[in-house]
Each structure stands twice: as C-alpha cells, then as structure tokens.
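Q: What structure does this chain adopt?
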Amino acid sequence: MTYNDVSRNEKRISGALALATHLLFLALLVFGVSWQQQKPDSAVIVDLWNDLPPLPQPKVEEPLPEAKPAPEPPKPAPKVELKPVPKPEVKPVVKPDIALKEKEKFEKERKLKERQILEAKKRDEEKKKQAALKEQQAREAKAKQEQEEAIKQQLAQQQAAQLRLINEYKQRIRDKIRRFIVEPPNLQGNPEVEFDVVLLPGGEVLGVKLRKGSALAAYDNAVERAILKAQPLPLPPDPALFKDFRELNLKFRPKE
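A:
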C-alpha cells in the first residue's frame, strides 16, 4: 500500500468519527427538548441536568504524519549490447515486372511506329522530290527540244533564205552573161555549154574553164567571151555567202 492510500484511509476514518459525534449531539438535543415538554419537577430537572455527563468534545484531528520521501526508483539494469547475429544472405528472387515489361513493349511499339511513319514520310518526300525532278527534267528537255527545233527552224529558214539569195544571184550572173553572148549565125538546135568560173570577192573573173562543150565551137567561144565581158559579176552583199560564189558552174543554152 502506498503513502497516498494510507492518507486516504485516515481521512475517511476521521470523517466518519466526526459525523458520528455530530449525530450523537443532535440526538441528545432532541431528547432534552422532549423531556422539558413533560414539565418535570425542578429538583428532578436539576438533578438530571447535574447528573448529565459532560458533552463529548469533538475529536481534534491529529496532524498527519510527515510524508516520507518517496523511495528512489530502482536504477535501470545496465543495457547489454547484443551483437546482431549475421543473417544468411538471401538473394532476392527476381520476379518479372509485368507492368514494366508492358511499358517497355509499349515504348518499343511506339518507337517502331514513329520510325515507320518517319520512314514512310521520307519515302513520300523522296518520291515527291523524284517526281518533281523528273517533271523539271521533262520541262527542261521539252524546252531544250523546242529551243533546238526553233533554232533548227530558224537555221532552216536562214538556209532557205540564203539558198534563195544564192540562187537569185546565180540567176543574175547568168542573166548578165547572157546579155553579152553574141550567137553565131545559122545556129541550129539548142546546144548546151558548161563552164567552171572562178571569181574574186569583188566579182572579177579569175579564171574560166570549159567543162563541157556544145559541139559548136563558135557558140562555146561566144559564151566564154560573154563571161569575161560581163565582169564584175553581181554578188550578194553578205560576204559570208562568197564561199558559194568562189567557184561557179554555169550552164548556157541559146533558147533559154
């Protein structure tokens, strides 16, 4: 039992004694009042009151004993350090992480799809580039062909114009020579004579050579004299065309 329990028990006993004393005193007062109402003799009353025992004095509570100091708590037992017993190394069992594998699979599929889309896009771009290149090459080839055809056409036109001009001036040369031909009398038939004529850039005759006679020497000589008399022969104004007039092959017939 502790000190506090002892104090509580003493307080209870003291309270019970005090209560009993007060009850006894109250009973005596009630008894005295009822006895006075019966009007006893005065002598008897005096005797009774004189014979009454002295009222009990209320018990003075004794001071509580001084509280003894609480006993010191027992000192804790010294701790004994226990060295941990080394546990056998248990290798963790590697369990397949399904979520991780699913995630890796998803990432691989996503990257594969992205790579396929990128490659398809590159192929489309390459096809478009090749198509554009082919189209450009076709346009360039068509433009080049058209240009070449235009050049050819232009050259053909120039050549045709030059040919017309060459033929025109050759005809002028023949016409001029023909004006100077004096045909021999009694010329029969329509003999043909052919001469090779070499000209200078100014139209002068450098040389005349009979290529094919007409079998009528008089007519052949008349034509040769006319060639020499007709110089300078007419030439086109473009010096580049002189190469077509340096050596001329001229044919003459009296009835042309």
